[in-house]
Design goal:
Structural class: alpha/beta
Radius of gyration: 43 Å
Shape: elongated
Order of helices and strands: HHEHHEEEEEEHEEEHEEH
Oligomer: single chain
Strand order of the largest sheet: 6-5-4-7-8-9-10-11-12
Strand content: 15-25%
Helix content: 25-40%
Largest sheet: 9 strands, mixed
Distance between the termini: 175 Å
């Protein structure tokens, strides 16, 4: 029996479906940049940099024209900080040549460098305050000890040389090579803290060229000053040994002790004071 054959055809991909008559298609609007001529796009790329350069040049010219009206002479100098060793008048005189400039032309870095050359000034900060003021903030040196016979040391171990050194003879005196200022100051602070509970203060601390340390205590409640020979190394351990033996044995004899040699590995040696010879008057009284 022959019958009609029905074939099922697969839809062909990639072909658009025919549009019925009378129907409309929605099409996205074409970007403006695509509709502009090619020359117009190049013109826009060139125009923006030109406009930016012109705006910057105009701002610069405007600033130059306004500068004479905004730039004023310096009429106020404010000095801030706790000053104990230097007067505000001395500071004013030091920076007077710089204050003659105007607000925008005053040389602040040079003014700061000039102030920090003054012996008693450790650090200086200088800034402008609109419209006609300069504020100076100062930090003074903190003298802790004398360095040799011609300088003082601050708490950072930095030497400075004021004129009136004679006023600071009460400070402890430290000695050593110039390169070892900070090292000597650090050892002074450590050893001074260890001796303080015993009633001792440090009157002299010396680091010699070969590396040996010598310490002399000041006369005080603990008795007359004594000399401690510390050697080259292990200073803290040697000082602990001295403290331990002092509390047990040396404390009662401290007035008769001239020096203590701590350069031994496990002990110390004591040097006694020479007995004071009686004077002629005392001898006469003793005979009577």
């Amino acid at each position: 029996m022959q019958g009609a054959m029905v074939r099922h055809q697969q839809p062909v991909t990639g072909r658009s479906k025919p549009v019925a008559r009378g129907a409309s298609r929605l099409v996205a609007p074409e970007p403006l940049s695509a509709r502009l001529p090619r020359n117009m796009s190049i013109f826009k790329r060139v125009l923006w940099p030109i406009l930016l350069v012109a705006a910057g040049f105009g701002a610069y010219e405007g600033a130059l024209r306004l500068m004479p009206y905004a730039d004023r002479p310096i009429t106020k100098i404010a000095v801030q900080g706790d000053l104990s060793y230097i007067s505000q008048q001395a500071v004013q005189q030091r920076i007077a040549p710089y204050v003659a400039a105007s607000f925008f032309t005053v040389d602040l870095p040079a003014m700061r460098a000039e102030l920090e050359q003054m012996p008693w000034i450790a650090h200086a900060e200088v800034r402008r305050v609109w419209p006609d003021e300069v504020v100076v903030r100062l930090e003074e040196q903190l003298p802790v000890a004398r360095w040799g016979d011609e300088a003082l040391l601050n708490n950072q171990g930095q030497a400075f040389t004021p004129r009136e050194l004679a006023n600071y003879e009460h400070l402890p005196q430290l000695f050593g090579p110039q390169r070892a200022q900070q090292q000597v100051m650090q050892q002074y602070q450590v050893l001074s803290q260890m001796l303080r509970p015993l009633g001792f203060s440090i009157a002299r601390l010396e680091l010699r060229e070969r590396g040996s340390w010598f310490l002399t205590t000041g006369a005080g409640s603990a008795g007359p000053g004594i000399e401690l020979l510390l050697g080259r190394d292990h200073l803290v351990d040697k000082m602990r040994r001295f403290i331990a033996i002092y509390d047990k044995t040396l404390k009662e004899q401290i007035t008769n002790i001239a020096r203590v040699d701590l350069r031994y590995a496990n002990g110390l040696a004591v040097g006694w004071r020479e007995p004071i010879a009686p004077t002629t008057a005392q001898s006469a009284v003793a005979k009577n």
